[in-house]
Amino acid sequence: MENVEKKLREEAKGLLAEKKVDVVVGYEKGTLPLTATPCFITTPEEADRLVWNPFCVLNLAKFVHDLLDQHHEAQKRVKPEARRKRVVGVVARGCTSRSLVIHLQEKQYGKDEIVILGVPCGGYLDGKKLAALAGGEEVREGALDEGKIVVKTMSGERQAALTGLLADNCLVCRFNRPVIADIQTGEVPPVAEAEREYDPVTAFENLPPEERWTYFEKEMAKCIRCYACRNVCPSCYCRICFAEQSQPRWVDIGADPSDTQLFQLMRIYHMVGRCVDCGSCTAVCPMGVDLRKFLKKLDKDAFTMFGHRAGVSLEEPAPLSAYRETDREDFIFEPGKKSEA
Amino acid sequence: MTDKESAKEWEPKIVAIVCNWCTYAGADLAGISRIQYPPNVRIIRVPCTGRINPFYIMRALHEGADGVLVSGCHPGECHYITGNLTARRKFAALKSFLGYIGLEGDRTLFTWVSASEGDRFAQVIRGVTDAVRALGPARKLVKRM
Ligand code: SF4
Ligand code: SF4
Ligand code: SF4
Is the CB of residue A265 below 6 angstroms from any atom belonging to ligand 3? Predict the structure, then answer.
């Protein structure tokens, strides 16, 4: 990863020096051990802060959207002749690039407003798996050494292979090479076990319905409605989200567990053909809600029903804004016929 | 809900969201032809099935509907040409997802009834009412307080 980092800094420096971009969204070293945090680089000198390593967790497409959206909004209050374009550079791994594709397809900004610095991705460190390794104790020091994660806590030192600590979505990632990039750095590591991608979904589908409902109930009961999952999700960019909308009010904020179930159901449904399985929502959830179990089902359905994978091609329209005459009809109710469950 | 269950006279409440041009006209035809069908449906008329936000369906279940029926023009006969074709995709994904989290499949039903199919409309309502009755009162996703 050293070389990638070096190349990345050089490219970012060049882009900023030549004024090809106004800002580069990337990752810098975090304040805690084994973390990296999103950062905004605006001068060539700062470019050396950029890092690229397995601690880069969040999907940066969210910030690209925020920056450009704010800029577009601000430009409305400027005289037409004084308007200017803002170009955002972004460090993008596979899933980030897919989110960018979704934004482009949904006409959130133009391709000329972004510069994509593609980086190879071998997956990121899962916070929960790391916490388990540290035995729930505070990680005082940590290092990544030749594929091994070493952590020091109050009670001593522990280590484990990085591959065993990668996030679940990274382990089965099909697109660890950016689907679009203006500048590509580094070699792309071998594809993960993508064919096992839907195994957890299939296993869940095979459980009896009551067990599935109990699991849904149990997971959603953990949710405290902090909306961190939505705020971090690149596909959740609505200025007014249904969750806060008051006319009409779609979902209440009450003590009734069904309110939260409804909120989750609605947000998750908005991800049909739009979730890139970046895992950001799961990573930021303070309550450890198993969102992925449900999001991945939509992904599977979008693929099996409509042959669609989210954000993979600029040409292919989003599944719910398109149709085929031959789309499945087997769920249509026919009186007198026993419908499938 | 338990008191409701124990009550022998429980009758399913079904919300039927239907399009103006086909199914609503089909319901009208059933009415003027004096075809009998169960009174368990509350019909909501919308311009087109493509106009139905899937949130309507979720919200209806949340508010305590025992079943939700959506019906529009047959594919290829949509007043707005393709409204029901995009709707079909939305519903396929929704129904599959609701089933995945453990909701009974027959709580949410989708079908097509054209303006000339008054008898089909009555059959559909009979079929849906029977299917929902067999499931008993809705428990999942229902708001209680
Ligand atoms: S729903 Fe979660 S995994 Fe999917 S795109 Fe949004 S943040 Fe990423
Ligand atoms: S949950 Fe839905 S309405 Fe809210 S921000 Fe996400 S996509 Fe938009
Ligand atoms: S981040 Fe977790 S707790 Fe917060 S709203 Fe999302 S699922 Fe609920």
Answer: no
User: What is the rounded CA–CA span in Å between residue A305 and residue B92?
Assistant: 8
- Collect all residues of chain A within an 8 Å Cβ-Cβ radius of residue B85: 323, 325, 327
Nearest CA to ligand 3 atom 1: A285
- Tell whether A63 and A178 lie within a shared domain: yes
- A58 and A113 fall within a common domain: yes
Mean of pLDDT values over B126-132: 94
Nearest CA to ligand 3 atom 6: A229
Mean pLDDT for all residues in chain A: 93
Measure in Å the smallest separation between the Cα of B22 and chain A Cα atoms: 16
Whether A59 is in a domain gets the answer yes
Is B144 inside a domain boundary? no
Which DSSP category does A305 fall into? H
Cβ of residue A247 closer than 8 Å to a chain B Cβ? no
Q: Which residue has the tokens 């900023």?
A: A16
List the domain range (segments joined by +) for residue B86. Answer: 11-134
Domain of residue B47, CATH code? 3.40.50
Size of interface A-B (CB pairs under 8 A): 131
User: Is there a domain that residue B145 lies in?
Assistant: no
| Same domain as A283, residue A206 | yes
Distance A227 CA to ligand 2 centre (A): 10
Residue B17, in any domain of the structure: yes
Q: Nearest to residue B69, comparing CAs of B101, B37, B100?
A: B37
Report the C-alpha gap between A269 and A288 in whole angstroms. Answer: 20
A101 CA distance to ligand 2 middle (Å): 18
What tokens appear for A152 in the block? 């020091």
Of B58, B82, B143, the CB nearest to A265: B58
Complex-level ipTM: 0.91
Residue A336, in any domain of the structure? no
A79, burial (CB in 10 Å: exposed 0-12, middle 13-18, buried 19+): exposed
Q: Do B88 and A323 touch (CB under 8 A)?
A: yes
Q: Which tens digit of pLDDT belongs to each residue from A280-338?
A: 999 999 999 999 999 999 999 999 999 999 999 999 888 998 899 889 888 999 887 76
Query: Whats the size of chain B, residue-wise?
Result: 145
Q: What is the pLDDT of residue B2?
A: 52
